Amino acid sequence: MTRRRGTTTGTITDIHITIAGPGCVAGVDGTGAAKDDGQINFRYVNKTRELTFPCSGGNLHYYQVNGCPGRLHDPPSLGVGRSAVTSRRAHARAAVMPIRE
């Protein structure tokens, strides 16, 4: 993790996420469906309270996609859009979008 006057950057590691919804299940991980080695870079700016996840520098992919409509595919890499912290309680909202290969 690095810090510059009011800005912190780093990498979140050991990511394994299961996405589930009505009739839809998918996993998000790094080098394999159950490897628990996903990672993503982040940047937080104190002044604006903005948390961002750049599209580069991570290794997240969808795995074992079942019944999910739309743009989920097994296993493309993910691009992650900007996420803004909306209050001092650090409530965050993230947008995860697949990258077309």
Polypeptide structure, described:
This protein has 101 residues and is mainly β. It contains no helices and eleven strands. Strand 1 and strand 2 (7-15) form a beta hairpin. The radius of gyration is 15 Å and the shape is elongated. Mean pLDDT is 75; it is low at 84-101.
Number of DSSP helices?
0
Poorly predicted spans? 84-101
- How is the main sheet built? 6 strands, antiparallel
- Widest beta sheet: strand line-up: 1-2-5-6-9-10
The fraction of residues in strands falls at over 45%
Q: Write the element-wise H/E pattern from the N-terminal end onward.
A: EEEEEEEEEEE
Arithmetic mean pLDDT: 75
Question: So what's the oligomer here?
Answer: single chain
The total strand number stands at: 11
Distance between the termini: 30 Å
DSSP helix fraction: under 10%
Computed CA radius of gyration, to the nearest angstrom: 15 Å
Shape: elongated
> What's the structural domain tally?
1
Class from secondary-structure proportions: mainly beta
Concise description?
With 101 residues, the chain is an all-beta fold. 0% of the residues lie in helices and 50% in strands. It is elongated and about 45 Å long.
Task: Provide the descriptors you would attach to this structure in a database record.
single chain; 101 residues; mainly beta; three-stranded antiparallel beta sheet; 11 strands; disordered C terminus
